[in-house]
Amino acid sequence: MQLQFMGSGDAFGSGGRFNTCMRLIRDGGDILIDCGATSMVALRQQGVDPNQIDTIVISHLHGDHFGGLPFFILDAQFYSKRTAPLTLIGPPGLEQRLTDAMEIFFAGSSTAKRKFAITVHELTPGEAIRMTGGSVMGLEVRHACGAPPLGLRLTIDDRTIAYSGDTEWTDSLLDLSRNADIFVVEALFFDRSVPQHLDYATFRSHADRCSAKRVVLTHFGPDMLAHLSEAEHEVAADGKLFEV
Fold first, then answer.
1. Least confident window among 1-10, 67-76, 126-135
2. Is residue 119 part of a domain?
């Protein structure tokens, strides 16, 4: 199993990077973790067939993390000619927010007939639900977005991938990352602490409390990009693959 970063940038394309989107490559259907607004461009650039993806898991309802869903769904309907079911998993409010986004971007698109079924599961914080090949659990983190923001913990094919989502430091991240094979961590800034987001210096001060086997940093703004060479942990890049 491999984890590929489709997008490793912030909301604003800093460094020419795409919005947050990760692809978990596995037998039996790939999984996207977050699907930011630029995700369809990123998938096309990497030569990924969207029909390989059977599940999309969303951490929180900001455009740079879920805003690619309307485009993914419409591409599946008109270009990719999808027939296989698509499963969407995300925080409470996902279904209504997705409907609203589709109607704002493409009026009438939310009720258009499709040749594939969409199932939406809203993940209550602390709950674990079954998904393709395993399960996903969400823990609430600290990031104002109009709905509970989640850090995610996916256990698939006996491997665990943890993901902080966007958040300032919270000890929930320790539970989220416990013994994970890979812990993907936001690092928007290098050493500037701001509300709602995690900077690398703050994470580094807690890193020895995290029991994850491997840490990969992502979601970089200009400040962090300027200091990537100083990071003591692995860093993501658009298109980069990690073995899980």
1. 126-135
2. yes
